[in-house]
Specification:
single chain, mainly beta, Jelly Rolls, 8-stranded antiparallel sheet, 24 strands, elongated, Galectin_CRD, Galectin-like, carbohydrate binding
Length: 305
C-alpha cells in the first residue's frame, strides 16, 4: 500500500514512553526534502503545535529537527548527516523516551531530540514532501504490554470506529511464535484484535486462528501466502475445513516488512484490515458463537516477529 501525501493520521491513544513509530518507504529519485511531524492536534488555522519536526533535506545533505509552538518555530537543530538516498528504500524508527526522541534509519542511530513540548499532547502524525510511504505502525517495546492499542489510524481506513472496543489477551508476555493466548471476555460484536509484527526475509506464509472456546473449531483462519500472494481464509468446523475464500483488493504483505492487521467482529461477519486498508469481510460460519476464551493466534511457519 502506498499512502497518498500529504498524510495526516490520528495516533489512537497517543504516544507512550517505550513505544516506537515505524515508517517504511522509498525516497524518489527527484526528492529534495520531506518531513515527518509529531503534532498536537491537526488544526490548520491556527496551525497545530508540532512537538517534533523531522526534516531530511536530501539535496543539502542534512537533517533538520525543530518544534513549532503557537505558530512560531524554535531553534533549528541541524545534523550534517544524510542516510536517505534517492531511489532507495528506508526504514525510519522514532523511539519515544521520557526526555528525548531517538531516531534511527535502516538500523543505525541517527539523532536524538529533547522534548520541547509535553509528550502527552502528541496525537497526530503528519508526513509530507517528496517521499513514498508504504507502511506505518506504532509498536510497544515493552512485552509486558503486548496489546497496547496505539495504532496510527490511517485516513484511508474504512474500519475506523472510535466506539469499538479492543480485546485484551491473557498470555505470559512471550510473543514468540507459535503464539497462543486467551481472548479475555471473548471476541463479541463490536470488539477487535490488533496484530502487529514483521515478516522475516524468508517468509512464505503466516497464520492467525481464532478458535471457539473449549473446542478445536476455528471460527476464522487467516493465512496470507506470500509466494502466491493469496490471502486465504476459512473455518474448521466439525473436524472439517470449509471452502476457502481468497478474493481481496490487493495483497498487503511482503517479506521483511512491518504490518498491522485488525480483525473487527460484527454481528454477521468479521472485517479485516491491514496497514489501515480494508481487505475483506468474512461471514460468520459458526452460528450463534464467536471466538471466546480459548481464542488463539498462531503462526505455524514461524515467519513473523
Amino acid at each position: 500500500m502506498i499512502l497518498t501525501l500529504p498524510f495526516s493520521g490520528t495516533i489512537l491513544g497517543g504516544l507512550a514512553v517505550g513505544e516506537m513509530l515505524l515508517i517504511q518507504g522509498t525516497v524518489p529519485s527527484n526528492a529534495d526534502r520531506f518531513q515527518v511531524d509529531l503534532m498536537c492536534g491537526s488544526s490548520a488555522k491556527p496551525r497545530a503545535d508540532v512537538a517534533f519536526h523531522f526534516n531530511p533535506r536530501v539535496k543539502k545533505g542534512c537533517v533538520v529537527c525543530n518544534s513549532l509552538l503557537k505558530e512560531s518555530w524554535g531553534r533549528e537543530e541541524i545534523h550534517k548527516l544524510m542516510p536517505f538516498r534517492p531511489g532507495a528504500a528506508f526504514e525510519l524508527i522514532i523511539l519515544v523516551q521520557s526526555d528525548i526522541y531517538k531516531v534511527a534509519v535502516n538500523g543505525a542511530h541517527l539523532v536524538e531530540y529533547k522534548h520541547r513540548l509535553e509528550l502527552q499532547r502528541v496525537d497526530t502524525l503528519m508526513i509530507q514532501g517528496k517521499v513514498q510511504i508504504n507502511a506505518i505502525a506504532v509498536v510497544a517495546t515493552d512485552q509486558d504490554c503486548p496489546t497496547r492499542q496505539s495504532a496510527v489510524s490511517l485516513s484511508e481506513s474504512k474500519m475506523k470506529n472510535s466506539s469499538r472496543s479492543d480485546s485484551s489477551l491473557s498470555s505470559n508476555g512471550d510473543l514468540s511464535v507459535p503464539f497462543k493466548a486467551e481472548i479475555i471476555k471473548g471476541l463479541s460484536p463490536g470488539r477487535s484484535i490488533t496484530v502487529k509484527g514483521r515478516t522475516l526475509p524468508h517468509a512464505h506464509s503466516l497464520c492467525l486462528n481464532l478458535r471457539v472456546g473449549g473446542s478445536s473449531s476455528i471460527a476464522l483462519h487467516l493465512n496470507p501466502r506470500l509466494k502466491t500472494k493469496d490471502f486465504v481464509r476459512n473455518s474448521f468446523l466439525s473436524a472439517c475445513w470449509g471452502p476457502e475464500e481468497t478474493e481481496s483488493k490487493h495483497f498487503p504483505f511482503a517479506p521483511d516488512q512491518y504490518f498491522e492487521m485488525i480483525v473487527l467482529c460484527e454481528a454477521s461477519q468479521f472485517r479485516v484490515a491491514v496497514n489501515g486498508t480494508h481487505q475483506f469481510d468474512y461471514k460468520h460460519r459458526v452460528q450463534d458463537q464467536v471466538p471466546d476464551p480459548g481464542g488463539s493466534g498462531t503462526n505455524d511457519e514461524g515467519t513473523v516477529v
